[in-house]
Fold these 2 entries.
Entry 1:
Amino acid sequence: MTAPPAEASPPEQRPARRRGVELSLLLCAVLVSVYGYACVGLARQGAVPPDAARYGAGLGALALVAHLAVRFRAPWADPLLLPIAVLLNGLGLVLIHRLDLETPEDVAAPTQLVWSGLGVALCVATVIALGDHRALRRHARACVTAALLLLCAPVFFPPVNGARIWIRVGELSLQPGEFAKVLLAVFFAAHLAAHREALAEAGRRTLGAVRLPARRAAGPVLGVWLLSMLVLVLERDLGTSLLFFGLFVVLLYVATGRVGWIAIGLALAAAGAYAVGTLVPHVHGRVEDWLDPYAGIAAGEGTGQLAQSLFAFGTGGVLGTGLGLGHSVLIGFAAKSDFILATAGEELGLVGLTALLLLYGLLVGRGFRAATGLDDAFGTLLAVGLSSIVALQVFVIAGGVTGLIPLTGMAMPFLAQGGSSVVTNWVIVALLIRLSHAARAPRPAPAAPQTPAARPVALR
Amino acid sequence: MIRRTRHAAGVCAVLLAALLVNAARVQVVESPGLEGNPGNRRADIARYGVPRGDILVDSGPVTGSRDTGGRLRYERTYRDGPLYAPVTGYASQTYGTSLLENLEDGILAGTDPLLSPLPLLDGLHRVRPPGGHVVTTVRAAVQEAAYRGLDGRRGAVAAIEPSSGRILALVSSPSYDPGRFAGTDGASADAWARLNGAPARPMLNRAIRQTYPPGSAFKIVTAAAALDSGVVDDVDAPTRTPRPYVLPGTSTVLPDAVEGCENASLAYALQWSCNTVMAGLGARVGLRGMVEAAAGFGFNDPGLRIPAGVSRSNFDTDMSRDQLALSSIGQFNTTATPLQMAMVASAVAAGGTLRHPYLVEKVTRAGGETAEHHGPRAYRQAMNPATAMRLREMMVQAVEEGTGRKAAIGGATVGGKTGTAQHGVGNKGTPYAWFISWAQADDAPLPGVAVAVVVEDASADRAEISGGGSAAPIARAVMRAALHG
């Protein structure tokens, strides 16, 4: 999250394409992942796994395909985005494989590898097919419709572990909320880009000291807030509603700069969260667990997931036990998904955990960097939205498993087991690649006065 | 909008910083506390991840480890569990450890720095060395003879090598199989609950953790005190004991079980176990002399470890003269563990010098190299060597012609002393039968064994319970095993 240069650089000083840098970083990312895979094998079986080379070749092939797509279709894209995604995805596969060794009856890494491949394929397809991100703006209405349908779908399926966020079709299970968040980011960006002036200008009606904006601009705002609460109550998914709301508040602020009624929104969200935290038993239990993770031990009822997670982090200490040598599997059923970070914390230590979190920070930072480089409001808001999704999701789940905030079931981007999640995150990376390409590509010659409609409203 | 984008990025940076600070808090500041949390099973997993070292008797293991394939991988097994339980104790994944399993846990579990060839580099490699072995002083033949002798009756046997202090046998009966509750399953919980609730208290180590009134067996101590203090010079001279003997300062008459005790000599009194003579001698030695003599044998020592802690055997230090007289024949508040009484016999056999009893000969690394050796250690000078000589003769007399005839062994010199301890309110409880003795093979330069046996079987015929009747044959079998087995 390094601050970009304060002043926009003149076009002739724009950065070089840096595709070679990207390729070497991708090589490093693949090597680090293969090294991790070999470490697990050495620790557990005393030998480098025979398929380490195959794993490296597979991951390398995926990375290479993505790199070629970027090289030819988005040559000005930020060279850090793809390597970070490959590294996180590769480490995620190593961690899931490592946990598979403890649960031979439930092997998840091969499936995750297939999903990762699908995610990269979708990423490549997006980079190739989406010539200009502004095309998405035209589909805002379709996006929000699809998002709402996806969000509502799990209501008709049975809840899993207390949360109604899954669609099950035979063996396949999907978490539609994951896809919905990208669609919603597109919708928010489009809506706010279109109405940001109306929202920033206060309307005539007042509510106390705050003047409310016009109904046409504010309507969808209220609608989305109600939607997030509806999702929370119906699906008991605190994480998703928190994510949507946070995403919305960030975009609203960036678009309008109106702190006043963002504060109202936050207050309403807090009230809603408090009400749900008190009234919905599933959520209330999580808050209780957060306040005293060890209550169950003292009461002789066994050790809760959060306490087990904290034990894993504590055992890791600064340097960690080493890959393959921890016991984070004690956490139980969510060890590979929601709690994957605990394995990283135990086996890689604070050092490894910090490195991982900084990788996310770098990814988010590059997203924001692209946002500040874009000329169109929609692009800027989309880049901010996508970066914020990653940032908020990392904060909510990492904060949850380390006891900073109450736990909400969410997937650590790229790291955690979960097909919908890994595919969605690859789409996010694809969009960021497109956006950063647009932000860094040399500008065409200054817009001719006779074609003012060719570029959207100037933003600066 | 760029400015506000930077604000948003700034908020994300703050969130990241919060995550990092919190991670450091959990992984650095709270880490030690989390490691010790009772809900954290990692210590157990590491501990049971390697096979535990073994406890050896006669250079063969009496313990073992079973790979369960579970999360707590290796489970303890026991060969002849009930026989050696008073020596080994138990090592349970659920209920912890006791006795040698507890005291030598560091060696057996592989955590003791003694096992590490380079202790200072211990922190650098994470792999725990395999567990070492604990070689005991116990001899299988002696242990088996004692266990068979008790034959399930409540009681205990302790056998010591007088010249060194090596404990040759430590038996408690009825016993239990520590392998029954070594794991974490329901069967272990059931076995543990059943053993703890059993009225016979099979998990009580009667040899070192239970004290009994020693009865007449204590008269050896009184005789040593009388000789050492000069109250008696000539063991064959009359002791000027009146009959009936009235306890000093009271009107209570002390009875004798045998005839001929009036004014009897010390030798006669010891051979036939005269209460009146010994009580009178104790009273004449006086409180200070008696307390000193008892302490010389190990009484009133709360810190005796073999290395398992031995319950303190008691001889009151503040008594009236009548209480002192009763205490001198092993009644009143005088209590002793079977091991303590074996030490009394041992001191006599070894010429007055009492060695520190010990159960662990050495500990070795997994490969068998000795890591630490335990040799004989001085403990107390229980009496003058001359006194010990005269007591030896009197104890031999007691076996050859007195109350302890059932302990005699061909080809060996055997000295012994019976005891039948009254206890309970109004002495209504089933008496405890004692026999303490020592034996020296005719061709051996030193006595090979000193034994104490106590039998407290409620089912036995009361008349049958006497040291000479039920305890002496067990002592004989144990001594035979020690000398020949």
Entry 2:
Amino acid sequence: MTQPETPEPRKRRLLILDDEPIVVKRLKPAFQKAGYDVEAFTDSQEALAAFENNPADIVITDLKMEGLDGIAFLDRVKAVSPDVGVIVITGFATLETAKESFHKGAFDFVAKPFKLADILDVVGRLEARQGTRRHAF
Amino acid sequence: MQSAMGVLGRIGQALRLAPRGKAPVPFVVLFKKFKSILERNNRILTLMADMGDKLGGEYVFDRRYIEAACEEMADQIFKLVSDLSILNRCRNVPLFTAFETVRQEIADELAGRHHFPDTAPTLPLSALRADMAEAAGGKFAMLGELKNVLQLPVPDGFVITTGAFAAFMAKNGLPELIARQTERLDADEEGALAEASATVRQRILAASLPKSLSRGLAEALAALAGRLGRPPRSLAVRSSAWNEDGETSFAGQYESVIGVPPSQAAEAFKRVVAGAYTPEAWLYRRRRGFREHEAVMAVGCQVMIDSVVSGGLYTYAPLTRKEEGIFVSAAWGLCAPIMSGELDTDSYLIGRRAPFASLSREIAHKPQALALRPEGGTAYTDLPPQKADAPCLAEADLSLLGEAAVSLEKYFKRPQDVEWTIDAAGRLYILQSRPMVFHGDPARRTGAIDAATEKAEVLFSGRGDVVQRGVAMGTAYVVRGDADLDDFPFGAILIAHHTSPRFSRIMPRAQGILTDIGSPAGHMAAVAREFRLPTVVGCGLATRLLETGDEITVDATQNVVYRGLVKELRYFELTEEAVYEDSYEYRLLRRLLKKITPLNLVDPHAPGFTPASCRTYHDITRYIHEQAVAELVAFSENRRGILDASARKLRTALPLNLSIIDLDGDGSAQGGEIAPEALPSLPLRELLAGLTGSGMWDTDPVPVDMGSFMASLTRTLGMGGPGEEKLGRNLAVVSNEYMNLNLHLGYHFILIDAYAGEVVNDNSLYFRFLGGVTDFDRRSRRARCIGKILERADFRVEIHGDLVVGRIKKVDLPAMRAKLRLLGGLVGFTRQLDVRLGREDDAHCFATEFLTAIAAVTEDAHDPARNP
């Protein structure tokens, strides 16, 4: 069997948004260590401005935040860049919020607390899909 | 939030369930409560384990998680206390009080209001332990541990507690002032810092001490003078802030005042407190994410040692990829100028193993030393040239320092940065030990780890459950009974068949723990986590593969046990970065867990095993678990309230005269007999299988010495003999997984209470044997023989005269089945033992004889994986 051709590795750009600093503090170095170019925010307006200015490949966003919440943020980044892969993380996981996230085009929905290895794995899967899709076109 | 009224209301409600003079609560209801307690107990321990897990570093959690977990915990504990209320007919009001106290402390902590432990304004060093940082601050709690637990020499003294600090601050309106200044800093940190610092410090230095603190300070100084036999010439007054010397070192951030005459202790106290608000210290806290209400400062006062030589050491200094050593710096005189870098020091590198010989030394020119002045205070003195250039440590001193260094590192499981001093008599004193901020490069070592672990022999891997991550390296020590714990060597790895909360006693001395059976949600696991002790439970074969004295490395992160010492693994762990520990939520969760997981109620037979002694949720849970089992046993012993269940008689050739109440039955079975194989209860079936399968119910008259009338009794108890009606009714209350069996056999009484299901944590077995027909000596001998049998079968045994109690908890189902069969055999075997035990030393051989005979019956009940 022939192996599918793997794309040239390039630094993927990742945006992390969570209004709790501890989450950002944990995720940022973990993804940096894994080879990503990471921008992290605790304020959704600032994050949106940064994304509009220079869209990331992947977005990890909290759901429940002051001001612009996660669903609205998801809507806005998808409007700017339809191909962006979005992962929603939340401490208030319910079936409804999960459904809504998927309906709005989230790639996955992860309930807090989660293991670092798990979120790295989700991003890996998202990346694989984005990679496949790029190849298909 | 539940108000106190709400709690009282609920107690009242519970009380109404059992009004005086009315019929007791039906047994079925009580039994359901008992089962509910078991389930809840399990849920609570799992929740505790989950919360503890979050501190392990693998998880990303936020504040919302902490709040939700605390809320569920409180809910479960409250319901647990309520369940016991019904079971023990409301004799546990103090438990509600204990619950409410802990719940309120947690609520305060979540709201940013610290609960200051209710202590005297000062505490002597001899009363301090590592877990008292809340009251004594980080540094002095740790010094107390060094002095009182590790038995290391620490200068005598006392600490002014956080409670006294809080009272001092409150009396002078300082919290409000600091809050206002903090707002200024939030708005403009750089611009406002110098002025805010000066304002706060001036107010602190001008403040007055509350009367209670002045009095406490005078009393503490008098007590210190009493211990010394004279008033101390001068004191070192030192900061001991919350979190100081913990994950965050605060090294050099806070002030110490040395050479303080006792009369000036109060002024020195204020200077140290003010030291928390120097621009540097304030900024340090802010940059590290500390909230202002976390700036809590206990202040320690210690006798100044008349030092000849002082210095610092790093317990772990990596030299090359393969080599490692202990780094010691030293100079003449007092320690303070050495630590602040004002004096040049000698440098020594010594080996990390006894005899701690020096690997290299560099001797500095040290023309001056700071010394105590006879009239108080300190002054520099000039040293003669030959002393200035002489090494200030001999090999014997280095050996002394090496031993202390290894003790400290083993205990704290991290490299330590230690300050020490030696007096004119050559006595070493430890002044401080804090975790070393290690600037290693773990990534650089990864290759070396791969190579090292590939070469090392894997003893077993992936077996059991990791309770606490980490690496333990050292000598195995197999513990088979309580007595072994007394000899537990410092720094060994504990190997045991099953988990036991009693191991908490030696946990400060251990490197790690491996057990054959046990649950990560159990009591012991929670304590091991508290000690951050690398622990794997349920390995299945640790005691079979390992012997006392084996050198091993336990990697409780990858869950692998290697033969020999794999140093690279430890190095990797020591150099791992742990920035997450700097975050507020992490510290908050740690503080909250202090109110949840520590287990103070370890021994159910200790006088302190009472509701009023419950200081944590874990204590409450443990107390209730023990109490619930005891209640049910006592209840069925007294045979109260069982008339609502219908009993059926067991059909058997043995003269057991056993009636069975089936709690799971639908009541349709009307009386009549039931065959053993049709019994719905697994524990009872297994017990009877042991009884009949072993042939232990010996019906032949045993050979007895003359004068004993046991021979006639054994005939009387023969099959279908005329004595059967004398047996009275024996009773078993059962459900599918439960059995409470009461047997009056002739003149002795056996009680067995067993719960055996798939959930290992719920499983428990209680065996009680009492009485007999022969003289007391023989009955006692029989008790000892039964005790020996039970002990060898892993039961925890107590013997009081002719009473034997054996307990076993939290073993898996196959093991439970085997134990039940063994007890079945024992029921038959013990009937005549007191007669057969004619001589004192017979106890031993009958125990062996029994265990050999029963092996065939218990073997097929065992897990085949453990008995290939």
